[in-house]
Amino acid sequence: MKRRAFLAAPLALLAPELRAEPVAYPLVEPRALAFPRDHGSHPEYRTEWWYLTGWVRDAAGNDFGVQVTFFRNRPGLAESSASAFAPRQLLFAHAAVADPRHQRLRHDQRARRAGFGLVTASEATTDVRVDDWSLRLDGEVYRADVTGRDFALKLAFKPTQPILLQGDRGYSRKGPDRAQASFYYTRPHLAVTGTLDVDGTARSVTGSAWLDHEWSSEVLSRDAQGWDWVGLNLADGGALMAFRIRGKSGETVWAGGTLRDAAGSVRTFPPDDIEFAPTRRWRSSRTGVEYPTAFRLRAGALSLSIEPLMDDQELDSRASVGTVYWEGAVRAIADGREMGRGYLELTGYWRPLKL
Fold it and tell me: Which residues of the chain have pLDDT under 70?
């Protein structure tokens, strides 16, 4: 699903005379994922994202949340045009650093049409570039290089566990109609090393991260408002992903999740086994949007309190993908003990999400 918050292309990227063309987007149907090919781009599908989130710590013991996301969109415009400037594929990128020392989320974004070797998404493996921002798979290590307005990061993410296929071997249902689905896999417990530059100071950091790669042509049902999603690296070495699709009245339209325990056993949760119960809400002074930033999460018999690193982790992405949403670092707590760390995403609280 994620990554989410992926709307129609910003009008600044599209010439006003362009018109939509009939496009037969392929359906998502169960199949075996194949690597390294499926690490790469799938340009025939409507939407796709590579989503990295994690917690890092500097030598002074300061914790930061970091997020890097690259989106690809096939808008169905000018596909028959011979022009190299035709926006057949659009690429977007978001990056953010949650800094609890200042209770501040630093973030920046990019939005470009693909082409000319400057804005690309390789089909062979993960290698996505939007101008000087990049995410690539170098052998077995992911490398992210981003320079924002008031931060920069150059981080390496090394897998320590096997790929985790979401749903039915990578086919992940997102609604009552089987066409409402995505191909979806996760790389949990990535070991992070590199540099993070905030306040004009570059600092060495280490930590743990999570990568989602997802692509689809149709995800949300017509009555869907948005989603709540969480991905957690558990302290015992396990990994938990859970989501729910919310309807316009706040009801759960669909839900699901996956738990891989410390021993490597995988359990996939049906909709009835997932529950997000808000325990605290926070209202943004910038947009007036109210978000449930703390939850009681139930996934089968597992019950966790989800608490944010800080409440203000709202992303205003109207300049790129055209929406406002909340995406931030969280802790998972049970019986007063920290059980894991990860990221929470809340979409559709500003306006209904339209993919």
Answer: 1-21, 319-321, 352, 354-355
CA atoms within 13 A on the CB side of 308: 26
Dihedral class, residue 223 (left if φ above 0, else alpha if ψ from -120 to 50, else beta): alpha
**CA 84 to chain centroid:** 29
**pTM (2 decimals)?**
0.91
CA 208/CA 204 separation, integer angstroms: 14
Tell me how far apart the alpha carbons of residues 185 and 165 are, in angstroms, rounded to a whole number: 5
The token pair at 159 is: 């897998």
Q: What is the pLDDT of residues 57-111, one digit of tens each?
A: 999 999 999 999 999 999 988 787 778 778 889 999 999 999 999 898 999 999 9
The string of DSSP codes covering 204-270 is EEEEEEEEEEEEEEE-S-TTEEEEEEEEEEETTS-EEEEEEEEETTS-EEEEEEEEE-TTS-EEEEP
CA distance 220 to 6: 12
CA separation (Å) from 194 to 150, 204, 285?
Answer: 18, 6, 34
DSSP state letters, 7-70:
-SPPGGGS-TT--B----PPP-------TTGGGS--TTSSEEEEEEEEEEEETT--EEEEEEEE
- For residue 298, the tally of other CB atoms under 10 A from its CB is 17
Q: Torsions phi, psi of 16, nearest 5?
A: -65, -25
In this structure, CATH architecture of domain 34-77+88-346: Beta Barrel (2.40)
